[in-house]
Amino acid sequence: MIERSIKTQVTEALNTGKIIHIPGPRQVGKTTLLKQLEPFLQKPILWLNGDETDIRAMLEKPTSTLLKKLIGNHKTLIIDEAQRIYDIGIVLKLIIDNISNVKVIVTGSSAFELANRINEPLTGRKIDYFLFPLSFTEMVENTNLLEESRLLEHRLVYGYYPEVVTSSESEKEVLKRLSDAYLYKDIFAIEYLKKPVIIEKLLQALAFQIGNEVSYTELSQLIGADKETIERYIRYLEQAYIIYRLDSYSKNLRNEIKRGKKIYFYDNGIRNAIIRNFNPLTLRQDTGALWENFLITERLKRNQYEGKWINKYFWRTMAQHEIDYIEETEGVLYAFEFKWNPKRQVSLPEIFKKAYPDSVFQSINKENYQDFIYGF
User: Fold this and answer.
1) pLDDT tens column, 146-172
2) Helices (H) and strands (E) in the chain, counts
3) How far, in Å, CA of 274 to CA of 177, rounded?
4) Would you say 206 and 283 are in contact if contact means Cβ atoms under 8 Å apart?
5) Mean pLDDT, to the nearest integer, of 265-285?
6) Which has the higher per-residue pLDDT, 195 or 16?
7) Residues ≥6 apart with Cβ < 8 Å to 165
8) For the chain, percent helix, then strand, then coil, each to nearest 5?
9) Could you give the C-alpha distances from 59 to 55, 257, 342, 374, in angstroms and in order?
10) Which residues contact 375 (CB under 8 A, 6 or more apart)?
């Protein structure tokens, strides 16, 4: 069983008196992580699954009396897929306010309820530990650096979903099954989502545009839906932890793009399954895009798991000067360009250098990427 990076952090947080909230995409191992944590939890444990109809019905209109009877003498309450429970925030608030001797852990594979309804009633009462698909670092710790480095090209194509990593002979089948609907279960459950086919077309369009600036207007014309629908569906996909957004950086220059955005996938394998392309890198035209998506996502995992507070952007001007990725931390800008080929010469645009003279620049390629995502 592969050890997850946040296991120690979650274990240490068990005695804080706060709700432990573990969000993340479906099938990334949240339930498996809970089982790894079980030896550290006070017994007896009550497990509830929000995917089960009777559990949702029981908790739809809860009272403190009902919850006390349900929890009884259990010392730990685990609610898996909690986003499926209507007004889960109210449920958890009642538990915290009225039942003092129970530790509560919840997981969620979308942010529909957990983001929109929990935050207000549970402000200051919960700690979030986002769980990604497996990371390069976790796999290095599970095997070794040499073995994981040898698998780099494979990871760029098939990604890091746990079932994919452990199914060495059937990665394509696993990814197709995941991408065909399962990851979108929470989105398709929305009552007013009339046209799920738009979601599928939108995902395909976004998959072909990773690394490029995204225009909602162009997507609207391409897919045949109005701009407001595109914006709303992209928000749904973000809330379901399938994609995430990178905004443009602008501060000093008049011709910097100020409201631009790029969209990336939490996993390369899911992206490739959406466009049905599992060709090796030698047969692909999108190696650069895969490399960029991989690096930024692995950096995101690293920063999140290490508790780093970092603002992240891309940078571009109207004259098409650009930088793939920028991090801003403690007043310093760190600029990165991503090139698969280490022989490609890359330099910081002069216009950026003059506008931000104290910035730090580095080109990341397949020979030096380990420092960027592993953190030697």
Assistant:
1) 999 999 999 999 999 999 999 888 999
2) 19, 11
3) 11
4) no
5) 96
6) 16
7) 2, 134, 139
8) 45, 15, 40
9) 6, 47, 56, 42
10) 137, 302, 306
Beta strands in the chain, from DSSP E residues, in sequence order: 19-23, 45-49, 76-80, 103-108, 126-128, 243-248, 261-265, 311-316, 322-329, 332-338, 360-364
SS3 50: coil
Measured CA to CA in angstroms, residue 251 lies from 50, 148, 315, 352 at distances of 45, 39, 10, 11
For 101-133, letters b (16+ CB in 10 Å) and e give ebbbbbbbbbbbbbeebbeebbeebbeebbbbb
Q: What's the average model confidence in pLDDT over 15-37?
A: 92
Distance CA 62, CA 227 (A): 39
Read off the tokens for 1. 């069983």
pLDDT per position as a tens digit, 296-348: 999 999 999 998 889 999 999 988 889 999 999 988 999 999 999 999 888 89
Q: What is the mean pLDDT of the chain?
A: 90
Buried b or exposed e, range 244-279, using 16+ CB within 10 angstroms: bebebbbeebeebbeebbbbbbbbbbbbbbbeebee
* Residue 39: Cβ within 10 Å count: 8
CA distance 338 to 299: 12
Please provide the DSSP assignment of 160-196 as one string: --HHHHT-TT-HHHHHHHHHTTGGGHHHHT-TT---H
Phi-psi region of 330 (alpha: psi -120 to 50; beta: other; left: phi over 0): left
Nearest to 33, CA basis, from 43, 20, 50: 20
CATH 3.40.50.300 location in the chain: 7-128
Q: CA 243: distance to chain centroid? A: 7
Percent of the chain exceeding pLDDT 90 equals: 70
Q: Which of 191, 153, 159, 195 is nearest to 176 (CA)?
A: 159
Predicted structure pTM score: 0.93
Confidence of residue 114 (pLDDT cuts 50, 70, 90): very low
CATH class name, domain 7-128: alpha beta
Q: Report the relative pairing of strands 103-108 and 19-23 from DSSP bridges.
A: parallel
Give the single-character DSSP code of 278: -
Question: Which pLDDT score, from 0 to 100, does residue 345 have?
Answer: 85
